[in-house]
Amino acid sequence: TWLNNNIPDSDVDIENYTVYRSDRTKNSGNSNGGGVCAYVNNKWCTVNNTHIIQRVCTPDLELLSLSLRPYYIPREFPKININVVYIPPDANRERATLQMTNIINDQQEKSPDSVILVTGDFNHHTLEKDLTNFHQYIDCPTRGINTLDLCYGKAYTCKQLAKLRESDHNMIHSANSK
């Protein structure tokens, strides 16, 4: 995101959305850029029903995990966990994968019926071998001609949207319809 504690939420507000941020910290060992954020549509899920469950900022992985209970969700799903990740280009991929899969496996163990999504900038890294019960949906370029941003989960479709303001990445919309 390139956001830091000197940039207030009001500078990145989108009407009718709440922004949840995990800015890069000194723990990352990286100085430029970094950090992740998620925008949650207030008409879909209120602030009272959205909780930050984990933040990770290491040299190999930056992650923000949210737990959401939207207005309309089938009863068989207690909640939705959204994990927004950034794997720096020079990260140790094995350590990043281990950290990420441990977090996702923990979420699945604590709430096996929850919907879990893992999305973000993977910088040419994939999780197909590690999250075998998840599907990767993005099949279009998300930065120039490259597909760096991925989305793993159990939804049916994902489609490319326009870039968000000054970002050099496209937004992705996922839905449970074919």
Automatic annotation (TrEMBL):
Q: Which UniProt keywords apply?
A: Endonuclease, Hydrolase, Nuclease
Kindly give the Gene3D superfamilies that the UniProt entry links to this protein: Endonuclease/exonuclease/phosphatase
Gene Ontology MF terms: endonuclease activity
Superkingdom of origin = Eukaryota
The portions of this protein that span the membrane are none
Under what name is this protein listed?
A: Endonuclease domain of the non-LTR retrotransposon LINE-1
Species of origin reads: Elysia marginata
